[in-house]
Amino acid sequence: MTIIITAFERSPDGGKGLARDTRVRWALEEVGLAYAVRPVSFQAMKEAAHLALHPFCQIPTYEEGDFALFETGAIVFHIAERHAGLWPFESEARARAIMWMFAALSTVEPPILELANATLLERDKPWSQERLPLVQDRVRDRLRQLAARLGEASWLDGAFSAGDLLMVSVLLRLRSSGLLDEFANLAAYVARGEARPAYQRAFTAQLAINAPKPSAG
Ligand code: GTB
Description:
By secondary structure, the protein is α+β, with helices and mostly antiparallel strands. It has two domains: about 5-85 and about 200-210, Glutaredoxin (3-Layer(aba) Sandwich); about 90-195, Glutathione S-transferase Yfyf (Class Pi), Chain A, domain 2 (Up-down Bundle). It is about 55% helix and about 10% strand. Strands 2-1-3-4 form a four-stranded mixed beta sheet. Helix 1 (about 20-30) packs antiparallel against helix 7, helix 1 packs across helix 9 and helix 5 (about 90-120) packs parallel to helix 7 (about 160-170). S-(P-nitrobenzyl)glutathione binds near residues 12, 18 and 71.
């Protein structure tokens, strides 16, 4: 059964790989599964066919025949559960990998999304410059805690897992802020994730769709 995921027809990030389909592509590449991509426009995301797949009109989605999922975390979990390569076999180590998946999405990502909103959506507000340092400090607090736990280890808990895949993906969103570079071990951790051949394949595939096309003439 062909796996089909949805992705932006053209990501607003212009190919930086920050849209969440890259996380799903990366997970599929790590376990060696082939997949097809159905690009969707912002208009199509709001229409009935996509709404049937995703109640919040977003990407990515995942389909395998009649089976469909939305929510990146659930999709990565589903892939990891069925295919070797994204978490250990031993049950306690697997539970810890799942713990790190949740930590990435529900503890580390929210302040990072808040920072993205503050810099992209709120910068014209009269209170924006006053608020921004507070939002940046909330991100720094999380990064400091994460950096302390990671220490000099390569990955969060032994071998690379779906927890690392999601944590690296979440941290990548910070690159343009400069905050990641304040924590050398986290910057190196993200670079290690990006250097994985599976990430490289996922990144290259999304870039082929999202890179700005040279204008004709
Ligand atoms: N919790 C959901 C999940 O993890 O799957 C969140 C999904 C989500 O936010 N999807 C975004 C979307 O469909 C795309 S990834 N947005 C369209 C909409 O809501 O109308 C988020 C994203 C978008 C763009 C950039 N960028 O340009 O840098 C980065 C990340």
